[in-house]
Write a structure and sequence with these properties.
The chain is an alpha/beta fold. The chain folds into 3 domains: about 120 residues, Orthogonal Bundle (Helicase, Ruva Protein, domain 3), CATH 1.10.8.60; about 180 residues, 3-Layer(aba) Sandwich (Rossmann fold), CATH 3.40.50.300; about 100 residues, Winged helix-like DNA-binding domain superfamily/Winged helix DNA-binding domain (Arc Repressor Mutant, subunit A). Helices cover about 55% and strands about 10% of the residues. Helix 3 crosses helix 4 and helix 11 packs antiparallel against helix 12. The chain is globular and about 65 Å long. The N terminus is likely disordered. The structure holds a DNA duplex (22 and 22 nucleotides).
Length: about 425
DNA sequence: CCTCCACAGGAACTGATGGCGT
DNA sequence: ACGCCATCAGTTCCTGTGGAGG
């Protein structure tokens, strides 16, 4: 759409919302199909993963022969297509047996998304039963072993052959160690309890050292088969992107230099294809909003910045009050030790009329914030003056101020 | 070589919340 | 109505520690 027309529309429409909406619908889109650049999209072919696909399939083939397949452990850095390959293979298997008398049930859960062990089991359990019967797996109230029993009896009742896919299974290991409940063990041994049906476990992990922290009894049954996904090279990422671009965008909207940059930016470090795809989508959105008819290098760079900033802002705004106060305290006493930050935090509490928390709790919160990367801490030994940790803000103070503006309690501090 | 600082960070506990089965 | 269970935020108590200064 050309400028004049936009202007005319703008003049005719009174409501600014209408104008925006009109622009959005009438303006031409660079996208043919946005979904292709979304992480849930399942491509026809998964490039550069032939070997891995073969191995996953082989491990699961016994399902077709009505036997219990091997449990499977899949390793690989983020964005190496682990989840994609596993889901793809399982989808195909399900298609193959669809009309047979041999029901295969697929259960997927991401351990990182569920904060608790209980939540994870409920999520899995609910996929086992028909819609409307969710009450059998309530969000709270039961004991973990009760939930587990219900899962097992649901499998048995329908004689299902279930495949549990647990993404980011290393987080589950963490949850388990917190509660002391040995769910892994029960899960891997569930087959012995089942008279009908079966249970196969597929664990997906980013952390290659995760295995070492596992109980050896569990390990032996869980890692009957192991598959390691290697990182993509920059060239491979480029090919993957090219493939998706064909589907996602209308022809010739992507500057080749932008493609190179996109592949290089996310590829160089980790070989993370998912990030590359995200980057492309965001860059496309930025270009589209500007009514640009081509995606250039500059759009990729700005997309990268935007993604970084968005991540920071959402992290900042979603923190509870005391974490926010602490971040402000770190800001005020940038580069200072825990003790000084604690003093600063206490005075902030006073001015905002909040009850201050103990130093123990504060150190814990600081290291939690440190984990997200918003602040960085360094342990410093000062000889006679003891040991402490010095914290510094890793992001722009203005970003923090902008993010905290909304918070009524913090209003007058800024 | 010893001392002693200023915390780090683990473990165990408390009280509140919300919802279960019986 | 009752006891039980998991979880969360927070507290109390604790042991551990590298190296400057004596």
């Amino acid at each position: 759409m050309d400028r004049e027309e936009t202007l005319v529309c703008g003049l005719m429409v009174k409501d600014p919302i209408d104008k925006l909406l009109d622009d959005a619908t009438s303006g031409k889109s660079l996208f043919k199909n946005r979904e292709v650049l979304h992480f849930t999209f399942m491509p026809e072919l998964v490039l550069h993963r032939d070997d891995e696909q073969k191995k996953v399939t082989q491990a699961l083939i016994p399902l077709l022969k009505k036997a219990r397949p091997s449990n499977l452990l899949v390793y690989g850095k983020p964005g190496t297509g682990k989840t994609l390959v596993v889901k793809k293979v399982l989808n195909k298997i399900q298609e193959k047996v669809k009309d047979g008398s041999f029901p295969i049930q697929l259960l997927y859960a991401n351990a990182k998304e569920e904060t608790t062990l209980y939540g994870l089991l409920i999520k899995l359990g609910r996929q086992l039963i028909e819609k409307g019967r969710e009450k059998e797996f309530p969000t709270t109230g039961l004991s973990i072993s009760e939930v587990f029993n219900r899962i097992v009896s649901a499998i048995e009742k329908n004689g299902l052959n279930t495949v549990f896919v647990i993404d980011e299974i290393d987080y589950l290991a963490e949850l388990v160690s917190k509660t002391g409940k040995d769910v892994f063990y029960s899960l891997t041994r569930a087959n012995e309890r089942l008279k009908k049906g079966s249970l196969t476990l597929i664990g997906i992990s980013n952390d290659l050292t995760f295995k070492e922290r596992l109980d050896p009894r569990v390990l032996s049954s869980l890692s009957e088969e192991e598959i390691v996904f290697t990182n993509y090279t920059v060239n491979q990422i480029k090919e993957i992107l090219t493939e998706r671009i064909k589907e996602a965008f209308i022809p010739n909207v992507l500057d080749p230099a932008a493609l190179n940059l996109c592949a290089a930016m996310s590829g160089q470090e980790h070989g993370d294809a998912r990030r590359a795809i995200d980057l492309l989508r965001v860059a496309g959105e930025i270009a589209e909003r500007e009514q640009s008819d081509m995606i250039k290098e500059d759009h990729i760079r700005r997309a990268s910045l935007k993604m970084e900033e968005d991540k920071e802002t959402t992290a900042l705004t979603s923190y509870p009050l005391h974490e926010k106060l602490l971040i402000l305290a770190v800001m005020k006493a940038n580069g200072n030790s825990t003790g000084e930050i604690y003093q600063s935090y206490k005075s902030l509490c006073k001015t905002t009329r909040q009850k201050d928390l103990t130093q123990r709790r504060v150190t814990q919160m600081l290291s939690e914030i440190e984990m997200t990367g918003l602040i960085s801490g360094k342990i410093v030994h000062q000889g006679m003056h003891g040991r402490t940790k010095k914290f510094a803000l890793t992001l722009n103070p203005d970003t923090v101020k902008k993010a905290f503006k909304e918070d009524l309690v913090l209003e007058d501090l800024l």
